[in-house]
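User: My collaborator and I are trying to settle a disagreement about how two of our proteins should look. Neither of us wants to argue from intuition anymore, so we agreed to look at predicted structures for both before our next call. Could you fold the first one, then the second, and keep them clearly separated?

Assistant: That sounds like a sensible way to settle it. I'll keep them separate. The first protein:
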Amino acid sequence: MHESIVIKGARLHNLKDVTLAIPKNRLVVFTGVSGSRACRALLLALVAAIR
C-alpha cells in the first residue's frame, strides 16, 4: 500500500473536523467553489501536517 499524509480533525477557516489521507507520489487535486477558500484552508492544514 502507498504511504499517505494523514490529516485528522482539521479545523481551519471554514473546515470543520475534516479528516483525509493524501497519497504520496500521486497527483492530487483540490477543488472547491470559487471564493470559499476551502482549497487554501486544506493547503494550510497540509503544510501544518508535514511540519
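The second protein, kept apart from the first:
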Amino acid sequence: MIGMFKSLPSVMLLVGEDLPAYLMTIGVLDYLKRKEYFRPIVVMVRDLPRAKVNLPALQEYAFLEKHALRDIVMPFCNVHRQEFNVKATGAVTPEQMALRYRSLGCNVLRANNINSSEFHSIVHGLDRLKAVISLRCTQILRESLLRLLNEKSAKVLNIHTSLLPEYRGVLTCGRRIYDIRRGVTGNDDSVGLTLHLIETAEIDAGNILNIGAVPYQGASVFGTLLGLVPTGVSMLTHQLDALSRGGLLVGVQQDLKQAHYYTYPTEVELKEMQDIGVVLATPDDLSRAVLGAFGNVTDGAGSSLLNHMQEGIRNHYFCAGQAVPEMADLSSEFVGVSGSRRHPCKKDRDPKTLIPPVMPGAARAEAAI
C-alpha cells in the first residue's frame, strides 16, 4: 500500500508552528487519505525569532497561538502516546502525524530554514512535485527557492489569514476585526482567508485563487482563526481537486489600489485595539481548540491533558511576572474531561519547577533539515 502511494505525484505542505495551521494540515491530510491522488510531504517549519515581537501583548499572543502547542501540548502527548490513540484522536504531534498517515506514504520533516541549500537539495530530489502550499509558514520563500520550484513546474500557494488585497502582512485578522469594531467596513462585517499564488518574494501579492469569508462572531483574534480552520481546509482541498484534474490555477490579479501592508502593531495601536474590544487570545481559546480536536480519548487522558495544559499556562504567566488569567472549568463542555484549577502554592514557586518541562522522547520530527 505504501509503495503504491509513493508512485503518486506529491504535494508539499509548509506548516507554521501555530495551532490553526496544524489543524488545517490535519484536515488536508484526512482529505488526501480519502482521495488518494497526491502523496503529501509535510514540512514543519521553524518560526524564526522576530525582534518586533517584543511587546507583552504580542508575546502573550505568540505563546497561546504557537508556543503552548509546541512546548506543552505536544511533549505531553508524546509521553502519553498510548493514551492518545491516533486512530481515535487524530495526530496530536508530528510523530503521530507520520504514523497516522503512513499508509498514504506521508513524510513528516522539520526545516529550520527553507531557503537553505540543504532544503533546496531535498526539493531538487523530489520527482513529480505538483504544488507547495504554505500554511501560515512565517519564513518567506526567497527567489532562489521559487526559481527551483518553477523549474519543477510546481505551483506555490499560500493561505493568508485575512482578506486580500486590503489586509496584507502580519496579524491582519486582528486589523480586520479592529476595523469592523470601529465601524469603517460599512455593512461588511466579514472576516476570512485568502488563498493566493506565490510567484515572487513580495509578501501576499500573488494572484488570488479563492476568498473564504464568514461573518465575524465577536471572538478573539485567535478564536476567529480557529473558527476559520474548516473554511481553510475546504479552500485548499478544492484547489487540490482542481490540480488533480489538470487545472492551471491562474487566479485573479490583485488590485494594487486597494492593497495595504501591515506590520506588527505598536504599543499605541494595541491599546487602541484593546479599548475598542479587540482581544488577541485567551487561554480558553487554546484549551477548547485542543480538547475539541484531540480530546476524544478514554481512561482519563483528556482530563490529564486539560490539567497539564492549564497548569503549563499558569506557569508561563507566573514565570513571565504577569497576572495569571482566570480559566473556565471546561469539564461540562467535554465528556470525560474535568479540569483542575489549582494555582501554584508558595512552596511550588521555584521558577525551575514552574517552567513546563521538555518531556523525554519528544523528538521534533522524522528528520531535521
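Some points you might bring to the call about the second protein. Confidence is low (pLDDT under 50) at residues 336-369. The CA atoms of residues 157 and 197 lie 4 Å apart.
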